[in-house]
Design brief:
about 150 residues; alpha+beta; N-terminal domain of TfIIb; GMP Synthetase, Chain A, domain 3; 2 domains; three-stranded mixed sheet; 6 strands; KH_dom-like_a/b; OsmC/Ohr_fam; OsmC/Ohrsf; OsmC family protein
């Protein structure tokens, strides 16, 4: 019995430089190792996006629980890689752009910090291998969200 402590996935070659990953939950993701004219993100780009997705889930959830009226949340990710093989990341930076109606900067700062220090499994794991930094900005929305 697998339990909650194990995740399972498979990755299969799909021809050329493409691969298809299938999660244990039945979802598929395409990867391509050809960064110049491939048909999908590279595995390193996918890792970068996974950090952003994981952190964004936390930030939005924390802000919603704090009754902040968020209308959009976007995270801009920058990954710096070393010049030698293996070309691992040396630094990753996540910049959150939160848009909402009367959103408190203090709440956004708290949400970003909680994600970075306590909740985001991906970025916390990556912190063991590299420098991971976070920043944020808050934009006012003229339109109050429904609900």
């Amino acid at each position: 019995m697998a339990g909650d402590n194990q995740l399972h996935a498979t990755v299969s070659w799909a021809g050329d430089s493409s691969f298809i990953g299938r999660s244990g939950s039945g979802h598929a993701v395409m990867f391509d190792s050809n960064k110049d004219d491939g048909v999908a993100p590279t595995p390193m780009e996918t890792l970068l996006m996974a950090a952003g997705a994981c952190s964004s889930v936390d930030v939005v959830s924390i802000l919603q629980k704090a009754k902040q009226q968020v209308t959009d949340c976007r995270v801009v990710l920058t990954g710096e890689r070393v010049d030698t093989v293996p070309r691992v990341f040396s630094k990753i930076h996540l910049h959150f752009e939160v848009t909402g109606f009367d959103v408190s900067e203090k709440h956004v700062e708290r949400a970003v910090n909680l994600s970075a220090e306590k909740y985001c499994s991906v970025s916390i794991m990556l912190q063991q291998a590299m420098t991971v930094t976070h920043s944020f900005s808050v934009q006012a929305s003229a339109v109050k969200p429904a609900g």
